[in-house]
Write a structure and sequence with these properties.
The longest helix is centred in the middle third of the chain and has 21 residues. The strands form seven sheets. An eight-stranded parallel beta barrel has the order 1-2-3-4-5-6-7-11, surrounded by six helices. 22% of the residues lie in helices and 24% in strands. Helix 1 runs parallel beside helix 2 and helix 9 packs across helix 11. By secondary structure, it is α/β, with parallel strands linked by helices. It is globular.
Length: 705
């Protein structure tokens, strides 16, 4: 399987290539999902691609954010620049951008970002229609679905190491609605790593453990995974180097786990959703960041100085002190002693979060191409240098022939010393010299000959690199479009309706708690079924059966999978996160900063800021599915559980999204998400009564950042 490594900086890219990564993924200052990484400028991108390609390492450019209408031209220009630099593929998310990119650069390979949330065979088929070559699957994908996706013909890339977003891939709006800095535009505020109160306890209840699937590699290969991906464009070059080294190795699992924890360890890892009962093993509520690896219990404390018997720190080591599994304080090394930032006690656990000796070792590693260099110097003839590397052979000829020596003649050692100076060229030369006796050549001429020869070899190696570019057919999104307009109301049951409410709407959307068994209201208006974002394993048959019920007029699609499962009218829902103009019938995303009359406006509702596949408990407790999370400021966020073959949850915003009293209230088509409201509350909203509680207008007037 191909190993795909993160490169948030040039040093991280170099570390990945040196460690032997088959591919790297990286971003430029804009349109990549890690805006806070160092990233690459136009100048450094060209150099990065050249460096990677010298060693046969592929470069995937991240263009995987949502793109505003006014940014589309600049995004296409960025893609074209990456294409011209020789990037091997673009990783994308925005379906509007994909269409434009396929027209502009039809042979540029496209990979579906994990932000597209593809996690089943039905979604994979839609990607094929979009001309996508590879899918980076959602981390929540089940093994049974990976096997089916492989049958679509897509290449499969799967995350095996690094951060696990707690929200289903591509559908987190928490940061955006709280601050207007959108995780879907690379500017996540990491609110999931904050402490919350759940079930009377305070902890990091939205902070997921990191993934580590080293011991599942053979299983993933058997399922059909083509490439394994390491998350971490915000992490250090040491992390990148170590992770690639480990995943390229065949070391025992225990050894690998220790090696990986030495560079970053959040929560002692989980296996994503590959194992049974995985939904109970995702959260690490005691700590939200790197806890490193334990070096032992503190056995001596003198003020803020502390020590562990038998352990000697490196000068650059960094530490955390844990008590009862919770982070107490940090510690550093000063004058050979470990000094904490706060008071510690005997028996507290010391964990090393940065290994100075390992860092020095990893940074000292290099990688060079073996090159055979044959230098031929003949009297009255131009010097000739023949270079061979990895099946590439070039011949370079000097401009000036050697002259007869007046005093000291040039020796083979002189030539060897000159050609051993490789400078920025990543070559490891083995030099052979064939020379007539009594010749002289100035050192400057010899150096120029070397530079010319090495430059010619570098260009030849790069020209020999195969980009594998080919046009993949694009047929676009094909489905029976919903063409209605007016007022649409979404509820979860008939108990929320009365005759007055029905008289005020044009369409009813049903968002049931249990898709296996739900009643369809007997109403005079057409009923659409709101389809869940996630459909894994046995979920799909449940959804297809629900959609097929004759009382269902059409569906609201929230993920690509649902576009190909019915001939009934389809309206794209907020799960597709469309923020700009398109001919596709859709409900504009509630994180968008503009409304329009050619779509439906999310006018009111407690927006689901997250869709969750895990359970907030550590085992099934027979809950009612109405739990809450409370943040540090006392804001309460409701969980809303719904069922397919498994339980899922939405985390609803603490206040409703409300455009009814804004200047945008006169939008043509209004969507009211009243899933959790009573009939009285719904009636008041539809009658235009002012909502007197706290609310948000999302990014309207603030701007989506």
């Amino acid at each position: 399987m191909q190993i795909v490594a993160p490169a948030g900086s040039f040093s991280a890219l170099r570390a990945a290539v040196v460690a032997g990564a088959d591919a790297v993924y990286l971003g430029m200052p804009n349109f990549g999902a890690r805006a806070k990484a160092e990233n690459f400028t136009e100048e450094t991108l060209r150099a990065a691609v050249e460096y990677a390609h010298m060693f046969g390492t592929r470069v995937f450019i991240t263009l995987n954010t949502l793109i505003k209408d006014g940014e589309m031209r600049r995004a296409l220009d960025t893609a074209r620049f990456a294409y011209d630099c020789g990037a091997d593929a673009a990783i994308v998310q925005d379906i509007r951008f994909i269409e434009k990119l396929k027209r502009a650069l039809p042979d540029f390979p496209l990979h579906a970002s994990t932000q597209m949330g593809v996690h089943n065979a039905e979604g994979a088929k839609i990607l094929c229609d979009l001309g996508i070559r590879r899918a980076v699957l959602a981390r929540e994908t089940l093994p049974c679905d990976i096997r089916k996706i492989k049958q679509s013909g897509l290449e499969i890339e799967f995350f095996v190491q690094g951060a696990l977003c707690v929200c289903f891939s591509g559908n987190c709006y928490f940061s955006s609605l709280a601050s207007s800095y959108s995780g879907n535009r690379g500017k996540c505020m990491q609110l999931c790593r904050k402490p919350y109160t759940f079930n009377g306890n305070r902890g990091y209840y939205l902070s997921a453990k990191d993934i580590c699937l080293y011991d599942r590699l053979n299983y993933l290969r058997e399922l059909g995974v083509d490439a394994i991906k390491i998350e971490g464009r915000m992490r250090s070059e040491e992390y990148v180097a170590q992770a690639v080294r480990v995943y390229k190795s065949s070391m025992p699992a225990k050894t690998a786990l220790k090696a990986l924890k030495s560079v970053y360890n959040r929560g002692d890892y989980c296996s994503a959703y590959l194992d049974e009962n995985a939904e109970f093993k995702v959260i690490h509520a005691k700590s939200q960041s790197n806890i490193g690896i334990s070096v032992g219990k503190i056995d001596k404390v003198s003020g803020k100085k502390l020590s562990v018997k038998g352990f000697t720190p490196h000068a650059r080591d960094g530490f955390k002190v844990m008590r009862d599994g919770k982070e107490l304080t940090g510690a550093i090394v000063q004058n050979g002693e470990i000094v904490s930032h706060a008071a510690c006690k005997l028996g507290d656990e010391l964990r090393r979060t940065f290994d100075g000796a390992l860092s020095e070792k990893l940074k000292a590693e290099t990688r060079r191409l073996d090159v055979s260099v044959n230098v031929e110097l003949r009297a009255d003839k131009q010097p000739v240098v023949t270079l061979c590397s990895n099946g590439v052979t070039v011949v370079a000829t000097g401009d000036t022939a050697p002259s007869a020596a007046v005093t000291r003649a040039i020796t083979a050692s002189d030539v060897e010393r000159a050609f051993l100076k490789t400078g920025d060229y990543p070559f490891s030369p083995k030099i052979a010299v064939s020379s007539d006796d009594g010749l002289f050549m100035p050192v400057s001429t010899l150096n120029e000959l070397r530079r010319s020869a090495y430059d010619k070899l570098k260009n030849a190696v790069l020209q020999n690199y195969d980009l594998h570019r080919a046009v993949t057919p694009y047929s676009g999104l094909k489905f029976n479009s919903f063409n209605g307009g007016g007022v649409m109301l979404m509820v979860e049951s008939a108990a929320q309706l009365n005759a007055d409410i029905v008289s005020r709407i044009d369409y009813l959307a049903l968002n049931p708690r249990d898709y296996r068994n739900f009643d369809i209201p007997d109403t005079t208006v057409p009923v659409l079924l709101n389809l869940p974002i996630v459909a894994r394993g046995d979920d799909m048959e449940i959804i297809k059966s629900a959609v097929a019920r004759k009382q269902i007029f059409g569906v609201i699609s929230n993920n690509l999978y649902s576009l190909g499962i019915t001939d009934k009218p389809v309206l794209l829902g907020t799960g597709h996160n469309i923020i700009g103009k398109t001919d596709l019938p859709h409900i504009r995303s509630f994180e968008a900063d503009e409304t329009a009359d050619d779509c439906w406006t999310y006018a009111f509702g407690y927006a689901p800021v997250m869709t969750l596949c895990h359970c907030p408990y550590d085992k099934c407790v027979g809950c009612k599915g109405n739990e809450t999370l409370t943040d540090e400021n006392g804001r309460v966020f409701k969980y809303r559980r719904y069922k397919l073959s498994s339980c899922y949850r939405q985390l609803l915003n603490c206040v409703p999204h409300n455009l009814l009293t804004s200047a945008r209230a006169d939008c043509k088509n209004k969507f009211y998400d009243c899933t959790t409201l009573s009939a009285r509350e719904i009636g008041d909203i539809l009658r235009g009564r002012f909502y007197d509680g706290e609310f948000t207008r999302g990014n309207i007037n603030k701007g989506l950042k």
